Amino acid sequence: MPEIDKVAVEDTGLFGKYELGRVIGCGAFAKVHYARNVQTGQSVAVKIINKKKLNGTGLAGNVKREITIMSKLHHPNIVRLHEVLATKTKIFFVMDFVRGGELFGKISKGRFVEDLSRRYFHQLISAVSYCHSHGIFHRDLKPENLLLDENGDLRVTDFGLSAVTDQIRSDGLLHTLCGTPAYVAPEILSKKGYDGAKVDVWSCGVVLFVLAAGYLPFNDPNLMVMYKKIYKGEFRCPRWMSPDLRRFLSKLLDTNPETRITLDGMLQDPWFKKGYKEIKFNEEDYMTRSCIGPKDERIINLNAFDLISFSSGLNLSGLFGDAGEGERLVTRKSPEKVLEMAEEAGAAADMEVQRKKDSGVKLEGLNGQFGFEVEVYRLTAELTVVEVRKNCGDAVPINNVWEEKLKSSLLGGATTSYNSEEQNQQQQPESQEVAGD
């Protein structure tokens, strides 16, 4: 096994949860390993990102966005992100292991017949439509980012270049130049802004052409020459393509985004409609984040997606929420016990104690002149995250209750603590309990 992180990978595996195996993929900033869940035996893929290599590249935001996006996507034709783990130097994406490998590997051996191309295209459009309905645009759709599972079904992966609606400017368009040259839409080349949904449709068109033809519609050793072909929409369909497929491709690869076919419009196209069945599924079946215990228990379970928020080397605190002026610590006491201790500490200090709906306690004193809130999150079966935020008044009386009464008791359970405001301003050592270092 290659060197990964001695403190994270021991004989028992990654964080004691995953046994790492062979490398199944490699990029400039990451490697993907086959792995096995030690407890369940489930096969997974672990994408290992080197934080040091990200420094100075401006790609840290892409990683943060990829985590945020993948944690929201629960579709049978999209690779599922199970959890994210982190150490001081590495980030670990734990994802579905898709046994069939890249679609690119299959198509490189020869083109597909139209019926098979259509089947894969139906699945691709189902996944893309789902993403768009959640305000997510992939922006790098290509056969290398499409995998095949053991049932021969297509799975979309690699959301590192994806965009969300929050990135749309006041003109209603996205402006970041990205994508793979041969699959990029002409409006991206014009550098005047573009609609994320429409550029995904263009890329889907290029993918369909490749599936049915076995080669790219726009290709040239000279990149600028290729871009000119894309900009002008210069491509030729091979003679073996059916007339209906040729007409459909002309709608997908329309250089004018305003007249290019939409996802809804595809449902009316003769070639697309043939054999089409809407992919129906229960989204909850694909969700990996859930609460522990009965629904009436309000304690929040922190899935490992949230572990990344504790990584000072790559601050993703937005996934945790704006901590404001406060502090976080990890304790071995149960969430229920922490809330009980907070209530007792507040009552002992003659503070007004108010239990919050979900997972916290609000403490106020001296007619509301000072106060703070305590929230708890179940990290694992043994560990609880405690987050404390000042919500009003002077910090001195707050510290008297928090520092002297409550915090000292919580730290008696092998915990780690740090100030969340300082975390956003300077580099801090990661806690061993949280990040696994």
TrEMBL record:
Positions binding ATP in this chain are K47
Note the superkingdom of the native organism: Eukaryota
Asked if the Swiss-Prot or TrEMBL record annotates the protein with the keyword Repeat, the reply is no
- Return the Low complexity bias intervals: 419-437
Instruction: Give me the ranges of the annotated region Disordered.
Output: 413-437
Please give the cofactor(s) recorded in the UniProt entry for this protein.
Mn(2+)
- Which E.C. number(s) belong to this protein? 2.7.11.1
Where is each Protein kinase domain found?
18-272
**Which SUPFAM superfamilies does the record associate with it?**
Protein kinase-like (PK-like)
- Which reactions fall under this protein's catalytic activity? L-seryl-[protein] + ATP = O-phospho-L-seryl-[protein] + ADP + H(+); L-threonyl-[protein] + ATP = O-phospho-L-threonyl-[protein] + ADP + H(+)
- InterPro entries registered for this protein in UniProt: Kinase-like_dom_sf (IPR011009), NAF/FISL_domain (IPR018451), NAF_dom (IPR004041), Prot_kinase_dom (IPR000719), Protein_kinase_ATP_BS (IPR017441), Ser/Thr_kinase_AS (IPR008271)
Entry keywords, A to Z: ATP-binding, Kinase, Manganese, Nucleotide-binding, Serine/threonine-protein kinase, Transferase
Family note: Belongs to the protein kinase superfamily. CAMK Ser/Thr protein kinase family. SNF1 subfamily.
Provide the protein name: non-specific serine/threonine protein kinase
Question: Which species is the source of this protein?
Answer: Phaseolus vulgaris
